[in-house]
Write a structure and sequence with these properties.
Number of helices: 10
Protein name: DUF3159 domain-containing protein
Transmembrane segments: 21-38, 44-62, 69-86, 98-126
Helix content: 55-70%
Largest sheet: none
Keywords: Membrane, Transmembrane, Transmembrane helix
Order of helices and strands: HHHHHHHHHH
Shape: globular
Pfam family, one: DUF3159
C-alpha cells in the first residue's frame, strides 16, 4: 500500500511488477487448469500449485532478489494445499483466502468506524515527517487525526477496501458452498490482482498529494 503515497500511480509497481503478478496468479491458475484437465483429480492440482509457489521462491533465492512476496505466496498456497488435502475437497484450497478476506473486511471496517482508517495509518507512516522517513517520528504517523479534513479524506479512501473485501465474499462464498471449484477459482483470479489494482487506484486518487500537506491541529473549543 506504499503506492498510495506515490506522485504517479503505477499498477504494475504496486503489485510487484510483472514477476510479482506471475507469482501471485500462477499457483491458483495452475490449480484450476490442472484440476479440470485431470478430470477433477485433486492431487495433480495440488502438486501443480505447490510446485509453482516453490519454484518462485527458488528462482528468487538463486537470483538473490527479495523473497518476501514469494514467501508470503508460498505460505498462502501451502495452507490451501494442506487444507484441501486433509479434507479431500478441492474447494478447500480456496478456504484460507476466504477467511483472509473476512479478517481484512472486519479490520478495515472497524478501522473506519473507530476513527482510525487504515489508509490514514498507512499515509501517516510514509508522511515526510513520519517514522519511515529519514528523520521522522512515530508521533507524526498519527498527527493527521488532529486534522478533521484529513481524517474524513482517509476514511473515504478506506471504504474502497471495505467494498473490495465484501464483494469478494459475496461472490465467492456461495461458489465455495456450492462446491463450484472451477467458477470459484476463476472468480478468485478475476477478483484478485485486477480488483486490487482498481482499489489501489481509487484510494490513491482520493489521497493524492495529502502526504505533503501540513497537518492542521484540531481547533480547541472556547471556554
Amino acid at each position: 500500500m506504499r503506492a498510495l503515497t506515490a506522485e504517479q500511480f503505477s499498477a504494475a509497481d504496486a503489485l510487484g511488477g510483472v514477476r510479482g503478478v506471475i507469482e501471485s496468479v500462477a499457483p491458483g491458475l495452475l490449480f484450476v487448469v490442472v484440476y479440470i484437465a485431470s478430470g477433477q483429480r485433486l492431487t495433480p492440482a495440488l502438486v501443480a500449485a505447490s510446485g509453482a509457489a516453490v519454484l518462485a521462491v527458488i528462482v528468487r533465492l538463486a537470483q538473490r532478489t527479495p523473497v518476501t512476496q514469494a514467501f508470503s505466496g508460498l505460505l498462502g498456497v501451502g495452507i490451501g494445499v494442506v487444507w484441501a488435502w486433509r479434507s479431500g475437497d478441492a474447494s478447500d484450497y480456496f478456504a484460507y483466502g476466504l477467511w483472509v478476506n473476512v479478517v481484512y473486511l472486519v479490520g478495515t471496517l472497524a478501522s473506519v468506524l473507530a476513527g482510525w482508517p487504515l489508509v490514514g495509518l498507512v499515509m501517516g507512516l510514509f508522511r515526510p515527517e513520519g517514522p519511515l522517513s529519514s528523520s521522522g517520528s512515530w508521533g507524526a504517523a498519527i498527527a493527521w487525526r488532529s486534522d478533521a479534513v484529513l481524517r474524513r479524506r482517509y476514511a473515504l479512501a478506506t471504504w474502497p477496501w471495505v467494498a473490495m473485501f465484501a464483494l469478494r465474499l459475496v461472490v465467492q462464498v456461495p461458489l465455495y458452498l456450492a462446491d463450484e471449484v472451477a467458477w470459484l477459482g476463476t472468480a478468485k483470479l478475476a477478483m484478485g490482482l485486477p480488483l486490487t489494482a482498481l482499489t489501489l487506484w481509487l484510494s490513491w486518487s482520493l489521497v493524492r498529494g495529502s502526504a505533503a500537506l501540513p497537518v492542521r491541529p484540531r481547533p480547541r473549543p472556547e471556554r
